[in-house]
Amino acid sequence: EDQVTQSPEALRLQEGESSSLNCSYTVSGLRGLFWYRQDPGKGPEFLFTLYSAGEEKEKERLKATLTKKESFLHITAPKPEDSATYLCAVRFMNRDDKIIFGKGTRLHILP
Amino acid sequence: KAGVTQTPRYLIKTRGQQVTLSCSPISGHRSVSWYQQTPGQGLQFLFEYFSETQRNKGNFPGRFSGRQFSNSRSEMNVSTLELGDSALYLCASSSPTGGTDEQYFGPGTRLTVT
Question: Which residues contact B4 (CB under 8 A, 6 or more apart)?
């Protein structure tokens, strides 16, 4: 069964302490991998789309990378305002273009 | 450009009732998807519409249905509500003909079934 797994479930970091979030998927035929940020009580906010292994995208303190079976969201020198739930989603070619979301990583940055 | 809007934002219903939620996509977006979000299951895909046609459907019972109008606005309906239907219902729009797949989400409708 196609799956998208995110780890860790939750992460607490000190301000300025860099780390990485992981998103792994178990299917071939990736059409696209998406990262979103979700704040409490709000809808997810689009961050990045990655299409092929080796691709990288950056935005401020965030950098997303993609390999054949997983993606990483690297957070460099995070600030308290980076605290949120980060969601990964995958659109598969052989699933009628359906999108499957991971359950997210809850990130908390301590000042 | 205005974002995705959803109405109502909050709703309280009783078991057995039915409910209709509305979504207005970003201007020019012709694809609308619906998701159910719960703490235990996360975001689960309900269905996707493009140009008034249902393209995909998730693994939800037939009590969940939707439609899309010619102006791309979409509605979803849940009949015979159950306690387990309490969730945040999110709508997302995208412009697949624009060459990108990213979806833009609305703020959601928080449905509570009592």
Answer: A43, B23, B24, B25, B26, B91, B92, B93, B104, B105, B106
In tens digits, what is the pLDDT along chain B, a chain of 114 residues?
689 999 999 999 999 999 999 999 999 999 999 999 998 889 999 999 999 999 888 899 999 999 999 999 999 999 999 999 999 999 999 986 655 578 999 999 999 999
CA distance B114 to B111: 10
> Of the candidates B32, B66, B100, which has an alpha carbon nearest to the alpha carbon of residue A91?
B100
Calculate how close chain B gets to A33, using CA atoms only, in Å. 9
B84: tokens are 């387990």
Minimal Cβ distance to B101: which of A44, A49, A87: A49
